[in-house]
């Protein structure tokens, strides 16, 4: 009996990019095979990324909010933390979603093959680790193999040194933990462990946390978390880690480096992710992969081999789930003969820290680099009735405009629920709204979302040549 199967479309990887592409292609009437290394669908996002981290962050948020209620005249006492139950809850959330995906694949008659796919020719994949399927012959392929954690070469092999996946396993709550990397993932995990009781130190090589966001926005987060963490060492790097019986001894170098090695119970390394393009034998299909593992694609998500497409983390930044799912739709629709293209004006980024930071479109830094003559409107949450009521006035909203036509080109919000509010700014950029459109849109009062409209009004106030 032959172990070879045929597919009009084969998708490699069942993360948000891969499962979305597979489902869309099946909905459009194509015969689809989805290959996934692991036994559950959902990829990094559902299993060890977006979803479990947000489930844990919710617990962190409630713990912090309950504590802060004392100043409102409501006391709950110290939280009693059952780490096994927190882990169980998180696993339940992940299980519910990944099982749901399995059901959706079945419903659409997408054939799921568990195993590792590698190219053997421009129309064939070999499958490792599956007894029933050895090869898949395909007409079209969508590569959605995602990314993996970057490992620092000098870190010793030790159970006490973890990456984001290890942190999400939540095996214990260390007394003190060093987070290497002040980017979104490191800071989100720091938020969780700090709320559960760990003393957190953060080391970041750049001169600000979340280096991709504007300095003024990050400053608010920095000021807020500074009181909660043991130390935040900017412009500093780790040069050596020694795993000893009494702990992990870390040597630092840079502006804020302690003179002597410091001892930690745990280290979370969160220094970034690298694309998986280099693990697929893509050369055997003639697909070009660059030295970092990225696969270049055109606006229709085609690689240099026209019937092979690529989407998600392995085609470039930003490595975000919502970028992957949108690319997935386009790739599947192009294969089905539609003339679609991936041409978003903007893709939002959110750090689900406390306070949250969200931005979309151009940052001020990027607008400057592009030489755009831009103006900014800001609205401080110290003037927002809703933020004052919540006792969380540290935030602000800012919107950025091209002065030549007053159209919005970017926005950033720092404060509670910033990630929920930023969507409106994304829509405004996509629709080509100008400051007046946003300012004249009636927003509900009192909401935090009003602050975006007030920032547009503030920008208008700076314009002397408005009709
Ligand atoms: P992945 O989700 O990486 O999926 C790729 C899949 O391909 C994997 O399941 C892998 O097993 C499989 N695979 C790889 N190679 C093969 C092969 N040869 N054969 C078969 N299968 C293969 N993004 C957000 O937008 N919001 C967030 O809040 C967010 N939080 C995050 C938190 C953490 C801790 C992490 C690590 C990431 C987070 N991300 C977040 C990023 C997000 O998870 C990724 O951008 C997203 O998962 C990328 O989707 P993808 O489909 O490209 O690939």
Automatic annotation (TrEMBL):
<dbReference type="Pfam" id="PF02852">
    <property type="entry name" value="Pyr_redox_dim"/>
</dbReference>
<feature type="disulfide bond" description="Redox-active">
    <location>
        <begin position="45"/>
        <end position="50"/>
    </location>
</feature>
<feature type="binding site">
    <location>
        <begin position="319"/>
        <end position="322"/>
    </location>
    <ligand>
        <name>FAD</name>
    </ligand>
</feature>
<keyword id="KW-0676">Redox-active center</keyword>
<dbReference type="InterPro" id="IPR012999">
    <property type="entry name" value="Pyr_OxRdtase_I_AS"/>
</dbReference>
<dbReference type="GO" id="GO:0050660">
    <property type="term" value="F:flavin adenine dinucleotide binding"/>
</dbReference>
<keyword id="KW-0547">Nucleotide-binding</keyword>
<keyword id="KW-0274">FAD</keyword>
<dbReference type="GO" id="GO:0004148">
    <property type="term" value="F:dihydrolipoyl dehydrogenase (NADH) activity"/>
</dbReference>
<dbReference type="InterPro" id="IPR006258">
    <property type="entry name" value="Lipoamide_DH"/>
</dbReference>
<feature type="binding site">
    <location>
        <position position="204"/>
    </location>
    <ligand>
        <name>NAD(+)</name>
    </ligand>
</feature>
<feature type="domain" description="Pyridine nucleotide-disulphide oxidoreductase dimerisation">
    <location>
        <begin position="347"/>
        <end position="452"/>
    </location>
</feature>
<feature type="binding site">
    <location>
        <position position="272"/>
    </location>
    <ligand>
        <name>NAD(+)</name>
    </ligand>
</feature>
<dbReference type="Pfam" id="PF07992">
    <property type="entry name" value="Pyr_redox_2"/>
</dbReference>
<dbReference type="InterPro" id="IPR004099">
    <property type="entry name" value="Pyr_nucl-diS_OxRdtase_dimer"/>
</dbReference>
<dbReference type="InterPro" id="IPR036188">
    <property type="entry name" value="FAD/NAD-bd_sf"/>
</dbReference>
<dbReference type="InterPro" id="IPR050151">
    <property type="entry name" value="Class-I_Pyr_Nuc-Dis_Oxidored"/>
</dbReference>
<protein>
    <recommendedName>
        <fullName>Dihydrolipoyl dehydrogenase</fullName>
        <ecNumber>1.8.1.4</ecNumber>
    </recommendedName>
</protein>
<keyword id="KW-0285">Flavoprotein</keyword>
<feature type="binding site">
    <location>
        <position position="54"/>
    </location>
    <ligand>
        <name>FAD</name>
    </ligand>
</feature>
<dbReference type="InterPro" id="IPR023753">
    <property type="entry name" value="FAD/NAD-binding_dom"/>
</dbReference>
<comment type="similarity">
    <text>Belongs to the class-I pyridine nucleotide-disulfide oxidoreductase family.</text>
</comment>
<feature type="binding site">
    <location>
        <begin position="181"/>
        <end position="188"/>
    </location>
    <ligand>
        <name>NAD(+)</name>
    </ligand>
</feature>
<keyword id="KW-0520">NAD</keyword>
<dbReference type="GO" id="GO:0006103">
    <property type="term" value="P:2-oxoglutarate metabolic process"/>
</dbReference>
<feature type="active site" description="Proton acceptor">
    <location>
        <position position="445"/>
    </location>
</feature>
<feature type="binding site">
    <location>
        <position position="313"/>
    </location>
    <ligand>
        <name>FAD</name>
    </ligand>
</feature>
<dbReference type="InterPro" id="IPR001100">
    <property type="entry name" value="Pyr_nuc-diS_OxRdtase"/>
</dbReference>
<feature type="domain" description="FAD/NAD(P)-binding">
    <location>
        <begin position="8"/>
        <end position="328"/>
    </location>
</feature>
<keyword id="KW-1015">Disulfide bond</keyword>
<keyword id="KW-0560">Oxidoreductase</keyword>
<dbReference type="InterPro" id="IPR016156">
    <property type="entry name" value="FAD/NAD-linked_Rdtase_dimer_sf"/>
</dbReference>
């Amino acid at each position: 009996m032959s172990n070879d199967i045929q597919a009009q479309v084969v998708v490699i990887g069942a993360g948000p990019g891969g499962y979305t592409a597979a489902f869309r292609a099946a909905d459009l009437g194509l015969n689809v095979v989805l290959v996934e290394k692991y036994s559950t669908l959902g990829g990094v996002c559902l299993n060890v990324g977006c979803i479990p981290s947000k489930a844990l962050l919710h617990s962190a948020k409630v713990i912090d909010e309950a504590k802060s209620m004392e100043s409102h005249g409501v006391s709950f006492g110290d939280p009693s933390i059952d780490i096994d139950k927190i882990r169980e809850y998180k696993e339940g959330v992940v299980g519910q979603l990944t099982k749901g995906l399995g059901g959706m694949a079945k419903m659409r008659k997408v054939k799921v093959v568990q195993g590792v796919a590698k190219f053997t020719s421009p129309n064939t994949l070999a499958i490792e680790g599956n007894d029933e399927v050895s090869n898949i012959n395909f007409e079209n392929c969508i590569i959605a193999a995602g990314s993996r954690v970057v490992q620092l070469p000098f870190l010793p092999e030790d159970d006490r040194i973890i990456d984001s996946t290890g942190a999400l396993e939540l095996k214990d709550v260390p007394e003190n933990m060093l987070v290497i990397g002040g980017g979104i993932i490191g800071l989100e995990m720091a938020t969780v462990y700090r709320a559960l009781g760990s003393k957190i130190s953060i080391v970041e090589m750049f001169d600000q946390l979340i280096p991709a966001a504007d300095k003024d926005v990050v400053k608010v987060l920095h000021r807020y978390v500074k009181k909660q963490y043991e130390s935040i060492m900017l412009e500093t790097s780790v040069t050596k880690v020694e795993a000893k019986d009494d702990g992990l001894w870390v040597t630092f170098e840079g502006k804020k480096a302690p003179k002597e090695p410091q001892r930690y119970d745990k280290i979370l390394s969160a220094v970034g992710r690298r694309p998986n393009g280099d693990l697929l034998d893509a050369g055997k299909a003639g697909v070009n992969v660059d030295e970092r593992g990225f696969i270049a694609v055109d606006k229709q998500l085609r690689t240099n081999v026209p019937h092979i497409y690529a989407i998600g983390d392995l085609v470039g930044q930003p490595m975000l789930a919502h970028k992957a799912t949108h690319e997935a739709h386009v790739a599947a629709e192009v294969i089905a003969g539609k003339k679609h293209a991936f041409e978003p004006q903007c893709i939002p980024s959110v750090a689900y820290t406390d306070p949250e930071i969200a931005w979309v479109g151009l940052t001020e830094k990027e607008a400057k680099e592009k030489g755009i003559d831009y103006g900014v409107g800001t609205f401080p949450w110290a003037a927002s009735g809703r933020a004052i009521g919540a006792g969380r006035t540290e935030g602000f909203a800012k919107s950025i405009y091209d002065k030549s036509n007053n159209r919005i080109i970017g926005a950033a919000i720092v404060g509670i629920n910033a990630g929920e509010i930023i969507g409106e700014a994304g829509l405004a950029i996509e629709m080509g709204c100008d400051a007046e459109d946003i300012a004249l849109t009636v927003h509900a009062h009192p909401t935090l979302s009003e602050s975006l409209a007030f920032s547009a009004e503030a920008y208008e106030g700076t314009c002397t040549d408005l009709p």
